[in-house]
Amino acid sequence: MAAIRTEGLVKVYGSASRPVEGSASRPVEGSASRPEEGGVRAVDGLDLSVAEGAIFGFLGPNGAGKTTTLRMLTGVARPTSGTAQVAGVDLGDSGKVRARIGYLPEEPAFYPWMSPLEYLDHVGRLFGLPAAQRKARTQSLLEQVGLAEVGKRRIRGFSKGMRQRLGLAQALVNRPAVLFLDEPVSALDPGGRKEVLDLIESLRGQCTVMMSTHILADVERVCDTIGIIDHGRLVIEANQAELLARYTIPVFALECEAGSEAPFGAWAESLRRFNWVTAVSVSGASARVTVMDVAAARATLLGEAAVSGLPLRRYEVVTPALEDIFLQLVGAGRRP
Questions:
Q1: 3-state DSSP assignment of residue 6
Q2: Cα torsion for 177, 244, 84, 66, to the nearest 10°?
Q3: Which residues, in sequence order, are CB contacts of 124 under 8 Å at separation 6+?
Q4: Looking at 106-240, which runs of residues are DSSP E strands?
Q5: E strands along the chain, which residues?
Q6: Dihedral over Cα of 190, 64, 178, 75: its sign
Q7: Contact 28, 91 (CB under 8 A)
Q8: Residue 11 three-state SS
């Protein structure tokens, strides 16, 4: 069962609207109609399906439509057209959707004069939780996010990492079926990033998580499923292992001893003569050789280096990284 599903989801900014005529996509209840030409299509016919229980990494270059998508799915912004369901509820039924989701925006806002205990109790009241349940849930969440010892301090003195953890706690007050996180660790130092990522990973099996981010290493660490969006359209959606397997490009990394850079570079460039070599990249004492035939490369590279008398200190087949796949799919000039 899909926890999140969209079909033909569109969001256009900056143009007057006119009625939709002859369109196959039905406007979401309460949304605007299709705009006149000239508007900016932040999301352009997005078809997305996120499985129940997944930790879903939502990737894309800056301006690709990630935040706009999350704003629509959480009810903060209204789609121009298309259909969407979250936790089995049509997006047009905003009250039911809000009751079943949690949302952590990129820059969460708080009442600075409140303490975490007061703030989470306030959020519980908004969801209609009874007093005893609010008290128990507040204490449990503060312990879960590591803020139990500062539960009575004023939020105004909190660090960025503490505020992010409190934001994650407020997003979990109602035990959401689907949790939306927009750039949850983008402004944190390494320690803060680790804390928040550990918290996100601990939610596996408790709810479906959709995490928008531009930090590819974080997606590799915690996400089991990945979707890449570019120019408002879904480029690919797949399990992380499947994605890595599908787009693996065999690359051999070689490195020579210091002082041998010049002959090593010339030798590496000479490998282009083999028809199974597709690219060679040299940087000082290191080289990356991209190949089409791994067997031929294994049988040839070390022997060639030995014949040339090069003192190699490193030789390995490089494990593909998500960044390599991202750049294949959206282009080297458009980083997340």
A1: strand
A2: 90
A3: 133, 134, 137, 138, 173
A4: 178-182, 208-212, 225-230, 233-239
A5: 2-13, 40-51, 55-59, 81-86, 89-90, 101-104, 178-182, 208-212, 225-230, 233-239, 251-256, 277-283, 286-291, 312-317
A6: positive
A7: yes
A8: strand
Cα separation, 323 vs 332, whole angstroms: 10
Q: Extract the tokens encoding 28.
A: 């979401």
State the span(s) of the chain assigned CATH 3.40.50.300.
52-77+88-245
CATH of 52-77+88-245 among 2.40.70.10, 3.40.47.10, 3.40.50.300, 3.40.50.150 = 3.40.50.300
What's the confidence (pLDDT) of residue 209? 97
Overall pTM surpassing 0.85 (yes/no): no
Q: From edge to edge, which strands make up the β-sheet containing 40-51?
A: 40-51, 2-13, 81-86, 89-90
The type of residue at 214 is H
Low-confidence ranges of the chain (pLDDT < 70): 15-38, 331-336
> Locate tokens 């953890």: which residue?
165
**Nearby residues of 47 by Cβ (< 8 Å), 6 or more positions away:** 6, 7, 8, 9, 234
What pLDDT sits at residue 32? Answer: 39
Longest dimension (CA), the chain: 78
Q: Cα angle at 129 between 160 and 1, to 5 degrees?
A: 80
